[in-house]
Protein backbone atom coordinates (compact mmCIF):
# COMPACT_ATOMS: atom_id res chain seq x y z
CA UNK A 1 0.00 0.00 0.00
CA UNK A 2 1.26 3.49 -0.87
CA UNK A 3 1.75 5.83 2.07
CA UNK A 4 -0.29 9.06 1.96
CA UNK A 5 1.54 12.23 0.97
CA UNK A 6 0.81 15.95 0.87
CA UNK A 7 1.76 18.76 -1.51
CA UNK A 8 5.04 19.39 0.32
CA UNK A 9 6.08 15.73 -0.04
CA UNK A 10 5.09 15.82 -3.71
CA UNK A 11 7.12 18.99 -4.39
CA UNK A 12 10.15 17.65 -2.47
CA UNK A 13 10.12 14.38 -4.43
CA UNK A 14 9.78 16.14 -7.79
CA UNK A 15 12.76 18.27 -6.76
CA UNK A 16 14.95 15.16 -7.01
CA UNK A 17 14.70 15.44 -10.81
CA UNK A 18 17.18 18.01 -12.17
CA UNK A 19 15.67 20.26 -14.84
CA UNK A 20 16.83 22.89 -17.25
CA UNK A 21 15.58 26.44 -16.70
CA UNK A 22 13.90 28.77 -19.15
CA UNK A 23 12.20 32.14 -19.16
CA UNK A 24 9.13 32.34 -21.37
CA UNK A 25 8.65 35.85 -22.75
CA UNK A 26 6.08 37.62 -24.90
CA UNK A 27 4.84 41.11 -25.70
CA UNK A 28 1.34 42.33 -24.93
CA UNK A 29 -0.73 43.95 -27.72
CA UNK A 30 0.47 47.33 -26.37
CA UNK A 31 4.09 46.20 -26.68
CA UNK A 32 4.80 45.72 -22.95
CA UNK A 33 7.26 42.85 -22.33
CA UNK A 34 6.10 40.05 -20.03
CA UNK A 35 7.79 36.88 -18.90
CA UNK A 36 7.95 34.07 -16.36
CA UNK A 37 10.51 31.53 -15.19
CA UNK A 38 9.71 27.96 -16.24
CA UNK A 39 11.41 24.62 -15.61
CA UNK A 40 8.62 22.48 -17.08
CA UNK A 41 9.70 23.10 -20.69
CA UNK A 42 10.21 19.95 -22.81
CA UNK A 43 10.28 18.83 -26.43
CA UNK A 44 7.22 17.00 -27.77
CA UNK A 45 7.72 16.24 -31.46
CA UNK A 46 10.33 16.60 -34.19
CA UNK A 47 7.89 16.48 -37.14
CA UNK A 48 6.28 18.93 -36.72
CA UNK A 49 8.61 20.71 -34.29
CA UNK A 50 6.52 20.98 -31.12
CA UNK A 51 7.41 21.92 -27.54
CA UNK A 52 5.37 22.29 -24.36
CA UNK A 53 5.42 23.88 -20.94
CA UNK A 54 3.03 24.17 -18.00
CA UNK A 55 1.74 27.39 -16.45
CA UNK A 56 -0.46 27.97 -13.41
CA UNK A 57 -4.07 28.51 -14.47
CA UNK A 58 -4.20 31.75 -12.43
CA UNK A 59 -1.03 33.19 -13.97
CA UNK A 60 -1.43 36.72 -15.34
CA UNK A 61 1.52 36.02 -17.65
CA UNK A 62 -0.44 33.10 -19.14
CA UNK A 63 -3.24 35.54 -19.97
CA UNK A 64 -0.73 37.78 -21.76
CA UNK A 65 0.76 34.80 -23.64
CA UNK A 66 -2.68 33.81 -24.87
CA UNK A 67 -3.42 37.31 -26.12
CA UNK A 68 -0.08 37.41 -27.95
CA UNK A 69 -0.35 33.92 -29.44
CA UNK A 70 3.45 33.75 -29.70
CA UNK A 71 6.30 33.59 -27.21
CA UNK A 72 10.06 33.20 -26.96
CA UNK A 73 11.73 30.45 -24.94
CA UNK A 74 14.98 31.72 -23.43
CA UNK A 75 17.12 28.76 -22.32
CA UNK A 76 19.20 30.11 -19.44
CA UNK A 77 22.94 29.77 -18.94
CA UNK A 78 24.69 28.88 -15.69
CA UNK A 79 25.35 32.52 -14.72
CA UNK A 80 21.65 33.48 -14.94
CA UNK A 81 20.33 32.13 -11.63
CA UNK A 82 19.56 35.63 -10.33
CA UNK A 83 17.72 36.40 -13.57
CA UNK A 84 15.58 33.29 -13.11
CA UNK A 85 14.72 34.34 -9.55
CA UNK A 86 13.71 37.78 -10.78
CA UNK A 87 11.29 36.24 -13.29
CA UNK A 88 9.81 34.09 -10.50
CA UNK A 89 8.76 37.00 -8.27
CA UNK A 90 5.19 38.30 -8.49
CA UNK A 91 4.17 41.94 -8.40
CA UNK A 92 7.44 43.45 -9.69
CA UNK A 93 8.76 44.73 -13.00
CA UNK A 94 10.52 41.53 -14.02
CA UNK A 95 12.37 43.31 -16.84
CA UNK A 96 13.90 45.97 -14.58
CA UNK A 97 17.65 46.08 -15.27
CA UNK A 98 17.43 43.13 -17.70
CA UNK A 99 19.20 43.36 -21.06
CA UNK A 100 17.07 42.06 -23.94
CA UNK A 101 16.38 42.55 -27.62
CA UNK A 102 13.10 42.51 -29.51
CA UNK A 103 12.01 39.60 -31.66
CA UNK A 104 8.77 38.81 -33.47
CA UNK A 105 7.84 36.13 -30.90
CA UNK A 106 8.87 37.95 -27.72
CA UNK A 107 11.87 39.47 -25.92
CA UNK A 108 15.17 37.61 -26.28
CA UNK A 109 17.12 37.84 -23.02
CA UNK A 110 20.80 38.60 -23.57
CA UNK A 111 23.41 35.95 -22.71
CA UNK A 112 20.92 33.06 -22.75
CA UNK A 113 22.10 29.69 -24.02
CA UNK A 114 19.55 29.56 -26.87
CA UNK A 115 16.27 31.09 -28.04
CA UNK A 116 13.17 29.52 -29.63
CA UNK A 117 10.35 31.44 -31.29
CA UNK A 118 7.04 29.64 -30.79
CA UNK A 119 3.38 29.93 -31.75
CA UNK A 120 0.70 28.47 -29.47
CA UNK A 121 -0.90 25.40 -31.02
CA UNK A 122 -3.14 23.81 -28.36
CA UNK A 123 -3.90 23.97 -24.65
CA UNK A 124 -4.93 21.26 -22.19
CA UNK A 125 -6.21 21.82 -18.65
CA UNK A 126 -4.33 19.67 -16.13
CA UNK A 127 -5.29 20.17 -12.48
CA UNK A 128 -4.28 23.66 -11.37
CA UNK A 129 -2.09 24.14 -14.46
CA UNK A 130 -2.50 24.52 -18.21
CA UNK A 131 -0.33 22.58 -20.65
CA UNK A 132 0.67 24.78 -23.58
CA UNK A 133 1.78 22.99 -26.75
CA UNK A 134 3.44 25.23 -29.32
CA UNK A 135 5.01 24.99 -32.76
CA UNK A 136 8.61 26.16 -33.01
CA UNK A 137 8.95 28.76 -35.77
CA UNK A 138 12.57 29.82 -35.30
CA UNK A 139 15.80 28.93 -33.48
CA UNK A 140 18.98 30.69 -32.47
CA UNK A 141 21.91 29.39 -30.40
CA UNK A 142 24.45 31.44 -28.44
CA UNK A 143 27.75 30.91 -30.25
CA UNK A 144 29.66 31.46 -26.98
CA UNK A 145 28.11 28.18 -25.73
CA UNK A 146 27.75 28.97 -22.01
CA UNK A 147 27.05 26.12 -19.60
CA UNK A 148 23.34 25.49 -18.90
CA UNK A 149 21.53 26.53 -15.73
CA UNK A 150 20.20 23.48 -13.87
CA UNK A 151 17.61 23.45 -11.06
CA UNK A 152 17.72 20.66 -8.44
CA UNK A 153 16.19 20.45 -4.95
CA UNK A 154 15.54 24.19 -4.80
CA UNK A 155 19.08 25.16 -5.83
CA UNK A 156 20.77 26.28 -9.03
CA UNK A 157 23.82 24.56 -10.48
CA UNK A 158 25.19 23.52 -13.83
CA UNK A 159 26.10 20.46 -15.85
CA UNK A 160 28.99 18.10 -15.15
CA UNK A 161 29.87 15.82 -18.05
CA UNK A 162 29.92 12.10 -17.32
CA UNK A 163 33.15 10.17 -17.80
CA UNK A 164 31.13 7.64 -19.81
CA UNK A 165 29.25 9.41 -22.63
CA UNK A 166 26.07 8.05 -24.15
CA UNK A 167 26.16 5.81 -27.19
CA UNK A 168 26.21 7.41 -30.64
CA UNK A 169 22.41 7.26 -30.89
CA UNK A 170 22.02 9.33 -27.72
CA UNK A 171 19.90 6.64 -26.07
CA UNK A 172 20.69 5.30 -22.63
CA UNK A 173 22.08 1.76 -22.40
CA UNK A 174 19.45 -0.76 -21.35
CA UNK A 175 19.70 -3.36 -18.61
CA UNK A 176 20.43 -6.78 -20.06
CA UNK A 177 19.95 -10.29 -18.67
CA UNK A 178 22.01 -10.98 -15.57
CA UNK A 179 22.31 -7.32 -14.59
CA UNK A 180 24.64 -6.25 -17.41
CA UNK A 181 23.95 -3.48 -19.88
CA UNK A 182 23.49 -3.71 -23.60
CA UNK A 183 23.93 -0.99 -26.16
CA UNK A 184 20.81 0.66 -27.57
CA UNK A 185 19.66 -0.26 -31.06
CA UNK A 186 21.04 1.84 -33.90
CA UNK A 187 17.60 3.27 -34.66
CA UNK A 188 15.85 4.61 -31.57
CA UNK A 189 12.09 4.08 -31.71
CA UNK A 190 11.08 6.85 -29.33
CA UNK A 191 10.94 10.53 -30.14
CA UNK A 192 13.12 12.70 -27.83
CA UNK A 193 10.96 14.22 -25.14
CA UNK A 194 8.14 11.74 -25.55
CA UNK A 195 7.33 9.07 -22.99
CA UNK A 196 7.76 5.54 -24.28
From TrEMBL:
Positions of the UniProt region annotated as Disordered: 170-196
Lineage, opening ranks: Bacteria, Bacillati, Actinomycetota, Actinomycetes, Kitasatosporales
Name assigned to this protein: Monooxygenase
The organism of origin for this protein: Streptomyces cyaneogriseus subsp. noncyanogenus
Positions of the Flavin reductase like domain: 14-158
MF (Gene Ontology): FMN binding; monooxygenase activity; riboflavin reductase (NADPH) activity
Pfam families: Flavin_Reduct
Domain of life: Bacteria
Record has Oxidoreductase as a keyword: yes
Gene3D superfamilies named in the record: Electron Transport, Fmn-binding Protein, Chain A
Feature: compositional bias, Low complexity: 182-196
Family: Belongs to the non-flavoprotein flavin reductase family.
Keywords: Monooxygenase, Oxidoreductase
Key word Oxidoreductase present: yes
